[in-house]
Each structure stands twice: as C-alpha cells, then as structure tokens.
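Hello forum,

I keep getting stuck at the same step: I have a sequence, I want structure tokens, and every attempt I make locally crashes halfway through. Rather than fight my setup again tonight, could one of you with a working pipeline run this one for me? It's a single chain of 89 residues.
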Amino acid sequence: MFCSRQCCGMGAKTLLLIQPLDWETDKPAGDPLVAGDTVGAGAGETVFFVASREAILAFEGWEGETAAVADPPPVDAAIVGIIDGKKFN
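Reply #2:
Ran it on my machine without issues. Output:
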C-alpha cells in the first residue's frame, strides 16, 4: 500500500496488507487487513500482529499517559514481530 500523506502519530510507518492465517494449518482465516509495520517486515514474510488498543501501544513514542497532550495514532492493527518458524509439541 502507498500513501502520499499519513495522519498524525503515524511517524511515516509503512502500511502493509496482511492476511490472517490459521495457526495450525497456515490457511487464510478471515479477511485481509491493513496493519502499521513497526518492525520492517517485507512482502511474503509471516508476521505477528496485534489489534485494537494494543496496536496503538506498538508505536514507539506513544504512551497511554500522554494521551491528554498527543493524539494516538489511528490504527486498528500493528505488526509487532516477524515469525521465523514455529514448532508444535
């Protein structure tokens, strides 16, 4: 995704279109969504994301107690990790 302008609090973060997967089968689970990338993920990588309030907290420099003086970034999902592999016991 490309944006010529981003809203306050985004800090020029990359927005990626991600497809949630079933953890055990790696098959698509749900609709694709747009997430702010906080870790530098690339195309084709499997990522870990958080949604809702946790997505706001993933953005560096924004902390809950500063909400009175700074607007939180307008995100519903944030990529917080790149999954290198997984193992089931």
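The first helix runs from residue 53 to 57. If your local run keeps crashing, start a new thread with the error log.
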